[in-house]
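Appendix B, example 12.
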Amino acid sequence: MDKTLLPIRLVFVLLCAAAGWLVSYTVFAGEGSPLVGLAIGLLLGLLVVLVDILLKGFSLRGLSAVTFGIAVGALIAHLVGNSPLLDEGDAAMLYMVRVGLFVVCPYLATVIALRGKDEFNLVIPYVRFVPQEVDVPLVVVDTSVLIDGRISRVCESGFLTSTLIIPRFVLNELRVIADSSDVNKQSRGRRGLEVLNELRKLKHLEIRVSESEVTKREDVDAKLVFLAQSLRAKLLTTDYNLAKMAEFHGVTWLNLNSLAKSLRTELMLGEHLEVEMMKPGKEEGQAVGYLDDGSMVVVNGGRTLIGRRVRAEIMSILPTAGGKMIFARHIPDLEGVGTEKPFPTTKPAA
């Protein structure tokens, strides 16, 4: 129980008990014991607190939807009850029909409003308290982006300064993945939670949690697209199918994979580069290394230098589905062959 709400609830229960004792003592003096009124007031206070606890997960949007549903249902019941359809007939029967309308119509309208409380966001638009003529760009974040992990580095660099909207069902899905019995899924989910904590530590970045839920896992993609549409936001994802669905519905999408490809260095034949030799190549004397963007570099004459960072000259570039494969030849230092310094595997002590 919340420590802030606990004293408020205790005071409320005591006030209810005191009110019951006072009513019994003053209004019903001589007709009953004040202790009975005290007990009734105490029970009523406890009942109200219990209802309060049961409504713990009831959001302001849900309350707005309930109010809207009751108002619309009461209006419909009033219009039907006072229509010419109920002008004539047995008075008792007409009374029962009107009572039924005032019970059924608000109930149905309230249920419909609660089921579509995200659509209710269109009736009462998403309000942003910002100065006039200042546009706050919004970006809806997908689960795949948080698991991917690169979003934290992109935001930390300052290239993405938009307000991030993280739906509640994305957080729930991330928690379910982190609690999975599958070791691989568990590690991916925990990495997503770590990335989320890293994003919260960035002072220049604003993060908002949208209280949106989904009943089926299959509806997640559709709800993400709908949320981006209703908020007039962009959708940040690494899921190709979700990106194409967003594009079909006219939602602008951002893909970290596309960003990574656009940032790859354009290399040309004859250029020099530095790369760490990681493992032997297929041909004799070859060694394989990787650039920062993941491109594989095959260096002729680098097998004896595995574990070291060497200079190489690009001889050819082969485009592949995963990026580029670069073939190069080892360039010895001016002082002699094989004088490259070993690539440090651990950080030096401070």
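The domain at 138-262 is CATH 3.40.50.1010 (Rossmann fold). The chain has three domains: 5-115, 138-262, 272-331.
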